[in-house]
Write a structure and sequence with these properties.
The protein is α/β, with parallel strands linked by helices. Helix content is 18%, strand content 41%. The protein has a four-stranded mixed sheet with strand order 1-4-3-2, covered by helices on one side. Strands 5-8-7-6 form a four-stranded mixed sheet, with helices on one face. A hairpin with a 4-residue loop joins strand 2 and strand 3. The longest helix is centred in the N-terminal third of the chain and has 12 residues.
């Protein structure tokens, strides 16, 4: 099996489109309104934003966490949780062996947490 889609709550599609376009650095791949569905493509996985979806936390891997947070803060997005080490990878089970996993979090306009992850 492979992951096809992740759903995230979004009460206002225009507001969600603006936020996620800025966050992801790309425009939506599709919008169907009605019924109120907005899609972004993430390396073969669809991110679905819709009012009927439950709140969720998604995690996005970035190559430079500090640069990404600076870019987002410059655009007016508040950092909810500053960068911090979650754990060190002794083997390749959950990430590259010998790296530390850093996380930071921002909130989208609907209050969902978005985790940004870097392996250093």
């Amino acid at each position: 099996m492979t992951l096809v889609q992740v759903a995230q709550r979004a009460a206002d599609l225009d507001r969600a489109a603006a936020f996620y376009s800025l966050l992801l650095g790309q425009e939506p791949t599709a919008r169907f309104d009605p019924p109120g569905l907005l899609f972004f493509g993430l390396d073969g996985v669809r991110l679905l934003l819709e009012a009927g979806a439950p709140p969720a936390t998604i995690y996005l891997r970035v190559t430079d966490l500090d640069a990404e947070l600076t870019r987002l803060q410059t655009a007016g997005i508040e950092v909810h949780t500053p960068p911090h080490v979650i754990f060190s990878h002794a083997d390749d089970t959950l990430g590259p062996a010998g790296t530390d996993e850093w996380h930071a979090f921002v909130r989208d306009p609907d209050g969902n947490l978005v985790g940004l992850v870097e392996w250093r």
